[in-house]
Amino acid sequence: MAVTRIMPDLQADDPQSTREFYVDVLGLEMVMDLGWVVTYADPQNRHAQITVIGQDASAPVAPDVSIQVDDVDAVYAEVNRRGLEIVHPLTDEPWGVRRFFVREPTGRVLNILSHRD
Hints:
Blueprint: E1 3-11, H1 19-25, E2 29-33, E3 37-42, E4 45-53, E5 65-69, H2 72-81, E6 86-92, E7 97-103, E8 109-115
Parallel strand pairs: 1-4, 5-8
Antiparallel strand pairs: 1-5, 2-3, 3-4, 6-7, 7-8
């Protein structure tokens, strides 16, 4: 299993209100907009991303960090083997990711995901 990307998830009441700052001030491009979640990326480095999230569409809480891995099922199995707290179960989401949320040792909620092909 390999980590392919890590990005912060900033919580906001209105994710749409951040567009001017991230696009016009910082020069990022909006690469995903589902209304409740918006992701911006550096046009020259697509792995440099930030996500602004309101209320998650299917999970009970918004995550603090998203970590993309090449095998989300393997990470999910390891998290279960260790008895860690699953905050949101392994789910195939309609926007093309397979993900789950786990609480890490300091209490932060991590969104562990892989993109489905």
